[in-house]
Amino acid sequence: MTSAFQIRTATAEDSAEISELIVNVAKGQLRNEFTDEGWELFLRLISRQTQQGLIADHQFNYWVACVDETQGKQKIIGILSSKNLNHIFHLFILPEHQRQGVGQALWNNYLFHLPSHSSPVITVKSSEYAYKFYIQLGFIQQQPRCIENGLAYTLMHYSRKT
Predict the structure, then answer these.
(1) What dihedral do alpha carbons 130, 27, 152, 93 form, nearest 10°?
(2) Per-residue DSSP letters for 55-82?
(3) Residues of the chain with pLDDT under 70
């Protein structure tokens, strides 16, 4: 069971741990959804350097869920990032912390921080693995599953009540 966790804005110093978390989750849950070329592209997109640049980019918002470890250190157990406020770019939770409310808490935090003037429609390119989770959040499939640049996804949208 996931102990108490906190959600905070990610910093550039988190980029290596975020990249490692995404790689670890993706190896077990997404690898078979991508072609070899798509997997190589995905790894470049989630590298420490790329994550550091995206965290600093004003088009992106990054939040992490953390648990306290020994000696005052925190461990990142989940990440949600959005692009241009209305597109979920990354949502990854370590497997041992899935189905324990971390993803829901990150989603609620994201919705809380959306400005009232932002678009009422939120999109995501869902993996097959995460599809049911997004359905539970209220997302609706917009088009059949597709592969683009070797990356498989299903485009979904969520209509926010404003």
Answers:
(1) 30
(2) HHSTTEEEEEEEEE-GGG-EEEEEEEEE
(3) 1-3, 162
Q: Which residues contact 109 (CB under 8 A, 6 or more apart)?
A: 7, 63, 80
Locus of tokens 């209220």: 138
Report the pLDDT value the prediction gives residue 162, as an integer from 0 to 100: 62
Q: Collect all residues with Cβ–Cβ distance below 8 Å to 81 and sequence separation of at least 6.
A: 10, 54, 60, 61, 62, 63, 88, 89, 90, 91
Instruction: Report the predicted TM-score, pTM, of the whole model to 2 decimal places.
Output: 0.91
Tokens 């906190």 map to which residue? 6
Q: What integer pLDDT is reported at residue 2 of this predicted model?
A: 55
Q: What is the pLDDT of residue 118?
A: 83
For every residue of 99-130, DSSP letters joined together read TTTHHHHHHHHHHHHS-TTS-SEEEEEE-TTT
